[in-house]
Amino acid sequence: MDWSSHYPGIENPLGRRSAPLLYVHKERITEDVVVGLLLLVKLAELFPDKLTLALEIRAKVTEYVRLRIEALRAEKSCQFQNVSVLRTNAMRYLPHYFRKGQLSKLFFCFPDPQFKTRLHRRRIVHTPLLAEYAFLLAPGGILYTITDVEELHEWHVDKCSSHPCFTRIPDSELESDPCVKAMTEETEEGKKVARGGGKKYVAVFRRKANEDVAVDNLFW
Fold this sequence. Notes:
Oligomer: single chain
Number of helices: 7
Enzyme class: transferase
CATH architecture: 3-Layer(aba) Sandwich
CATH class: Alpha Beta
Subcellular location: Nucleus
CATH superfamily: Vaccinia Virus protein VP39
Catalytic activity: guanosine(46) in tRNA + S-adenosyl-L-methionine = N(7)-methylguanosine(46) in tRNA + S-adenosyl-L-homocysteine
Distance between the termini: 30 Å
Shape: globular
Organism: Hyaloperonospora arabidopsidis (strain Emoy2) (Downy mildew agent)
Number of strands: 7
Main location: nucleus
Helix content: 25-40%
CATH topology: Rossmann fold
C-alpha cells in the first residue's frame, strides 16, 4: 500500500511503523461525518508524530471527509498532514492494508448496534474480527470502544475480555487518557448524547504482549 498520496506532506510515511487508526461506523451520515472529522482533528493534535487514518465504506462520506481534510491542510499548512481517510470495508479488508503489529490504537466510536440477533455477526467488535485486530495491534496497543447502548457495551466487554489477546484497562486508569476524553466530550455524537441526558459507555482494552497470551485449544 502506497501511503504517500494520503500523507503528501510527510516524507516516507511507510517508514512509520506505528500509526493510530480511527474507525467510525454509523448509519446516520451527517453525524458520522462530524464524529469522524472532529475525532480526526483531535487525534492529529494529540499525536502530531503519528499517522491517523479513518476508514469508511461509503463513497460520498469518504469524499466529503477527504475534501475537508484538504481544506484544513490548506488553511493551516503545517497541520493535519498526518490525517487521512480511506474508502474500504474494514470488516473484510483491514489486514490488506497493515502489517502485523503496525497499529498502536484502534477506535470504535458509536458503532451500529445491529440490534436484531441475526445481525449480531455484523457487529464490528466480534470474536473473529478481534483476532485480526490483535494481529494488527502492536503489543501494548490499545483498542477503544464507546457507545450509548448499554447492551452493546456489555457485548464489547464480553467479547474483548474473553479474547486471550486482550485485557481490559480499569476505568480508574482512563481518567488521564486524552483519547477517552476526545471520544466522550469532543465528538458531535458524544455531545449529542450528553445533551439528551444519555449515558456513554466506554471500555478500553490493551493488547497483551505475545508471551502473555495463553490460548486454550478450545478457544478456536
